[in-house]
Amino acid sequence: MTEPQHRHLVIWEARHDNGWTTLVMEQPDGTFVAWAGPDDTVGVDYVEDGPEHAQAAAMFALKRKSGHAQCSIRCSAFEMRLQTMTVTPPQ
Ligand SMILES: [Zn+2]
Questions:
Q1: Distance of CA 91 from the midpoint of ligand 1 (Å)
Q2: Strands (E), the chain
Q3: What's the 72 CA to ligand 1 centre distance in angstroms?
Q4: Tens-of-pLDDT digits for all 91 residues of the chain?
Q5: Interval between CA 29 and ligand 1 midpoint (Å)
């Protein structure tokens, strides 16, 4: 029996002037999820092998899904934060 592990995963998030958010989230396997969405829901648009690629992919998803062609001064840049995640090993 193994206790659940707590991991700190890195998230990069940027808010845009059309109300959408682009998000990059590190996964326990070392890949990075790229996502663009209009609310707090998080999904997967692309999976990339590095944070820079994932940020570019998230911006591409934002452009494709919301028509946000270009960032303005009211858009924020990607900001990094840490998210604690409980990882329960398979039984
Ligand atoms: Zn923008």
A1: 43
A2: 5-15, 21-26, 32-37, 46-48, 79-87
A3: 6
A4: 677 788 888 999 999 999 999 999 998 899 999 999 999 888 999 999 999 999 999 999 999 999 999 999 999 999 999 988 787 877 7
A5: 29
